[in-house]
Amino acid sequence: MPTSLASQPNANEAFWVEARSTYDSLDWQRRFTKQVFNFIRQQAAWLALTSPPTTDVRLLDYACGPGIVSLSMLPYVTSTLGMDVNPHQVSEYNRRASGANLPTTLCHATTGDLITTPVDPALSTAEFTSFDYAVCSAALHHMDDPAAAVARLADRVKVGGKVVIIEFLAKDEDVPAGEEERRRMNEEYRLRSHDNTHLVAGPMPPSQHGLKHGHGHGHEHSHEHSHEHSHEQGHGHEHGEGEGRHRHGPHGFKLEEMRGFFAAAGLVDVKSVIAPEKIVIEGFGEWDSFMMQGTKA
After folding, report:
1. Region (Disordered): which ranges (predicted)?
2. Residue ranges of E strands in 85-211
3. Which of 84, 98, 262, 294 is at 20 to 30 A from 156, Cα to Cα?
């Protein structure tokens, strides 16, 4: 029988002990990451995950940040590849995995962007395809073309594999934004709400100027297609007052909107579940979140 990654001695405990980055430095950030962790564990059966796995199960943790999704799925998978555009987040992921004694052959992260067109040919090898699960948590709302992002993730799973998105649920007053409006909102969200300077070691390469897609919950995740998606699932926002305060907060998705993205990506048996407790984002209040899955036909 295949061996789950969680069978490595004390892997779960060691991973949390290694969590000492700014990603989890604030109480509300730690609560957020624990909620994501618990949400995935609670929905394991719904996602057709078993512990231990009965066959080899490969996970792509996209926009991985320091690896909360990977950690939550340790008991159910046999190998995990984390991917993030931000090399600082990749380093943090790998530091934690190494500290938890997870073998790099089975659990590691790499710097990469699957959303940019054209995709780097180096990401077209067997290592980066035919996953059983491709999961993206709390990152899609920062992307200017979330439908395309879902489609790219669908490209990476095998037939019968699942794409899983965890996101904020749009509030009633939210109006779905067009491409230009979404970009403007992302720009404001990043500049007014996030302090990710601790993640930047030096000047951004010329090829990435204006192309970061930041998911500013602590991970900064640059994409070459103008996606401001700083995605660190710790939500490390700095908030000002008055005019300097971000007006929008995370721009979530309506369930029907997300179902449309999944359908356009050729995913079937699409279903969703709302998280049992609200997520509190400091400075932005309470948000419902949801998980949606679809299967590649």
Report:
1. 201-252
2. 107-111, 131-137, 157-168
3. 98
**Residue 91 near residue 110 (C-beta atoms within 8 A):** no
Nearest to 93 by CA among 132, 123, 128, 65: 65
Specify the pairing of strand 285-287 against strand 79-84: unpaired
pLDDT in tens, the chain (297 residues): 676 766 655 555 554 444 445 566 778 888 999 999 999 999 999 999 999 999 999 999 999 999 999 999 999 999 999 999 999 999 999 999 999 999 998 999 999 999 988 999 999 999 999 999 999 999 998 787 999 999 999 999 999 999 999 999 998 755 555 556 655 655 554 444 343 333 333 333 333 332 234 344 544 443 433 333 333 343 333 333 333 323 344 679 999 999 999 999 999 999 999 999 999 888 788 999 999 999 999
The CA-atom distances, in angstroms, between 159 and each of 51, 96, 132, 293, 295 are: 22, 31, 8, 14, 8
Dihedral pair phi/psi, residue 93, rounded to 5°: -55, -50
For 278, residues 6+ apart whose C-beta sits below 8 A from its C-beta are: 286, 287, 288, 289
0.70 exceeded by pTM = yes
Could you tell me what percentage of the chain is helix, strand and coil, using 3-state DSSP and rounding each to the nearest 5?
35, 25, 40
Residues contacting 206, CB < 8 A, separation 6+: none
From CA 194, how far away is CA 188, in angstroms rounded?
10
**188 Cβ partners below 8 Å, 6+ apart?**
246, 247, 248
Task: Let me know if 52 is exposed, middle or buried by CB neighbors in 10 A (0-12, 13-18, 19+).
Answer: middle
